[in-house]
Please model this.
Amino acid sequence: MSCDILGPMASGQRPITGVNRTGRSKEPDLEGENPDMHNETVVELQKHLADAHAQLDQAYDATLNGWLKILDLRDNETEGHTQRVAAMTVRLGQYLGIDPQQLVYMSRGALLHDIGKMAISDTIMQKPGPLDEEEWAIVRRHPTFAQEILSSIPYLKPSLDIPYCHHEKWDGTGYPQGLKGEEIPIAARVFAIVDVWDALRSDRPYRNAWPENEVMAYLQEQSGKHFQPEIVKAFEMMLAADETPKITVNNHSVSGTAGLSPL
Model:
């Protein structure tokens, strides 16, 4: 056991408390102690801890960004989708009044929503033609793969709700768990709407982007089925108001519509 752990008892310094010859405890002798010096030491330690935590967060986020680059290189069809849905998910979460720390977790979860696809072979993910039923069954396991990948990483465990639950549906017909209603984490309920909204209004090799009015009509049609009705309504109101608040995520200021084309 090191002297640092044992403290003054191991280093030969006078202990703060002790036992006198009669075996009774005696009060600490603080005469000569400087309270201001003690307070300054505590403040300095707190600053060092905060700096170390910030540096650790930056290192983790750099690793996260490396994963995102791998995903983008593997799936050119959806280039830019991840960054757009992350920004818009945070924007909608803020509009709904979700706690700022939860918004940070939601941002990371949105960025990693398809991380489970890294566990699926290129033969399936890059197949030029349509997938057969067996291949679709494997693809539908990507939320479970995400849970297996992220659950053992303490830094990312609070962000797991979106990667694991973003394919659940309000009426209970989603996957992988078949969660229903408010059994689905709020982060996943918010993200699901943004994810579909962005996908439909973006060009794909197999179809053109939908007109904005058709996208919104689809969201309304799926209200109460795929999506929570109250969040669909809030999303419509937010877009109609065209609010673009500045959001701080991972120590960066981000525009709520960063990466989005005009409505």
Remarks:
- Residues 79-258 form a domain with the Hypothetical protein af1432 fold (CATH 1.10.3210.10).
- The mean pLDDT is 79.
